[in-house]
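User: Predict the structure for this protein chain, please.
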Amino acid sequence: MAIEKVRAYFRALGMDGRINEYAESSATVELAAHAAGCEPCRIAKTLSFLVDGAAVLVVAAGDARIANAKFKEALHAKATMIPADQVEDLVGHAVGGVCPFAVNEGVRVFLDESLRRFDTVFPAAGSSNSSIELSIPELERASRAEGWVDVCKGWE
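Assistant: Here is the predicted structure, written as structure tokens:
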């Protein structure tokens, strides 16, 4: 199970005790915000794209939406979502629990600027009923992101 991979990943960082598992689903921004007891904008949703045939993850604020032109400018490719039935094979986590932790080798991770306005955010932790609260510096380190991108709109 992907949450066990994520738990082991955070155990190596000394942070596995911070993963929250909920009795209810946290598979959407709204459900995750309710489960975590935070505003939907503080959910760090992980979006899965295909770029040149490879998986690319963009972690963005819950109230942000991909801006196609900005995505193309930043990543030099059209924003093409990975079909839901291929996400787990390509990324290592199923839809509803996709996160930037313990992903398959070769998966590229970027953090969107929409997250920088928060002290802490709540990304998923590998299942459709989990999350972990992380500071932005912790998210940077734990996600092993290649860097920050500005590919979203609607949150400004």
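The longest strand covers residues 43-51.
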